[in-house]
Design goal:
The chain is an alpha/beta fold and 308 residues long. The protein has helices at 17-32, 51-64, 79-88, 100-105, 129-137, 181-191, 207-216, 247-252, 257-267, 279-285, 302-307, and strands spanning 4-7, 36-41, 73-74, 93-96, 143-146, 152-157, 161-166, 171-173, 194-200, 223-227, 230-231, 296-297. Helix 1 (17-32) links the parallel strand 1 and strand 2.
């Protein structure tokens, strides 16, 4: 087996317990199937990403005992690959001059699935050259969208089974020239030989669109495992403001990285509450079929729950 799994954080801050749990799961899925395990920093957004955050994230993952094959990749080094991929999509893209507000206020597309995120209403799909020139003359700068033509795509997910979604005309390049996550993730996973994507289940709905783009680019789509997110005491997605939920803040309360690994392992039903574990031991116990499928309700005081 020579495929690879990966963890692909955005270096926009410290990793919290939910991020660390997803990273551990990605490592377990990859290593238990004999895959290489790669790290990629998704720093496309120059205003939010920071090299210092990337260094801190790598240090935290290493402190948990996770190891990676090869050097971390960084998306800001790969601009030329994204441009080259978009060139290959000629005829399947179009310029979009809409502002966020115009998209939000446009009437819904008729095929919008109930409960799904807003899909692009198609305003700029068939602009004439003259209409484009008018918009440029107004000082608007275009984003570039995929012309998906209302297609549906199906992916296989190890935890969710077959997932089929209509593919939106999603953005490939923002109107400030920044390449989109949905483009870069497909180009990079293919270039890195990634054939197993383990990540938070908030991204499940974007997987069919990414697989569709992979097919257009002539690269294989990976297999997926979208894992449950961590939530705070009110059931909302965990965030750094939820208190001592990063390794650095827990360390200040006297909690070691090893104890954090125990806490995460307990949440995965892979260890007892006071057991000292290592990633290698968790690998021996790991069974994807037995993974808890509910969101992880992080204790209000993670440090307290370890001392209880
Ligand atoms: N960079 C994304 C995040 O931090 C993850 C994307 C992915 O794993 O495909 O949420």
């Amino acid at each position: 087996m020579n495929g690879a799994g990966r963890y692909a954080p955005s270096p926009t801050g410290e990793l919290h317990l939910g991020n660390l749990r997803t990273a551990l799961l990605a490592w377990l899925f990859a290593r238990s199937t004999g895959r290489r395990f790669l790290l990629r920093f998704e720093d496309l957004d120059p205003e939010r990403s920071d090299r210092a955050h990337a260094d801190r994230q790598l240090a935290d993952l290493t402190a948990l005992g996770l190891d990676f094959d090869g050097e971390p990749q960084t998306q800001s080094d790969r601009w030329a690959s994204y441009a080259e991929a978009v060139d290959r999509l000629a005829g399947r893209t179009y310029e979009c001059y809409c502002s966020r507000r115009e998209i939000a206020e446009a009437p819904s597309a008729p095929h919008r699935q109930p409960g799904s995120l807003r899909t692009y209403p198609g305003t700029c799909r068939d602009l004439s050259n003259e209409q484009r020139a008018d918009r440029l003359a107004e000082g608007r700068r275009p984003a570039l969208r995929l012309r998906a033509g209302g297609a549906s795509e199906t992916v296989q997910d190890l935890l969710h089974g077959e997932v089929t979604r209509m593919v939106d005309d999603f953005v490939l390049r923002r109107n400030d020239g920044v390449w989109s996550y949905n483009l870069a993730v497909v180009v990079d996973d293919a270039a890195m030989g990634v054939d197993q994507v383990v990540r938070g289940d908030d991204l499940l709905s974007s997987a069919p669109g990414q697989a569709y783009l992979a097919a257009l680019l002539g690269v294989p789509a990976p297999m997926y495992a979208h894992v449950p997110l961590a939530v705070n005491a009110s059931g909302q997605r965990l965030a750094k403001r939820d208190g001592a939920v990063t390794l650095a803040r827990l360390a200040r309360q006297g909690v070691s990285a090893g104890e954090v690994l125990t806490l995460i392992a307990v949440s995965l039903d892979l260890a007892g509450p006071t057991e000292r574990v290592t990633p290698a031991l968790l690998l021996e116990r790991f069974d994807p079929a037995a993974l808890p499928r509910r969101p992880w309700a992080v204790p209000g005081s993670p440090a307290g729950s370890l001392r209880a």
